[in-house]
């Protein structure tokens, strides 16, 4: 039988900027994914809507990365959403880089 060691009380909380960074990273990844899927359904052709979606995703990534880095400076806060936000925004940036590379060099 496991014995409880008692309660641990803390005043730590998640950073609001870290949570927003994670949300923006997820939105950027979803936006890019949907734009690529819609382009695939269109036979590989793009439209102004796909370009605008990619541009909006870039704005989400830049703001999300900035919020993630800024939230690392806050003291006595949990870091889960901060690290997750930076990771998801970096992943979305990598996804955009692959899309641009494929469009420029792959036939």
UniProtKB/TrEMBL annotation:
Keywords associated with the record: Membrane, Transmembrane, Transmembrane helix
Q: What is the lineage of its organism?
A: Bacteria, Bacillati, Bacillota, Clostridia, Lachnospirales
Q: What is this protein called?
A: Uncharacterized protein
InterPro entries, alphabetically?
A: DUF6142
Organism listed in the record? Parablautia intestinalis
Q: Which domain of life is it from?
A: Bacteria
Which positions, given as ranges, span the membrane?
Answer: 21-40, 52-70, 82-104
């Amino acid at each position: 039988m496991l014995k409880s060691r008692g309660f641990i009380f803390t005043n730590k909380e998640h950073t609001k900027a870290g949570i927003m960074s994670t949300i923006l990273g997820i939105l950027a990844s979803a936006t890019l994914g949907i734009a690529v899927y819609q382009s695939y359904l269109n036979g590989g052709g793009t439209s102004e809507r796909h370009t605008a979606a990619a541009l909006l995703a870039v704005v989400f990534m830049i703001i999300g990365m900035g919020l993630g880095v800024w939230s690392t400076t806050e003291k006595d806060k949990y870091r889960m959403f901060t690290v997750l936000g930076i990771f998801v925004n970096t992943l979305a940036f990598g996804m955009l880089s692959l899309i641009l590379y494929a469009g420029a060099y792959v036939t």
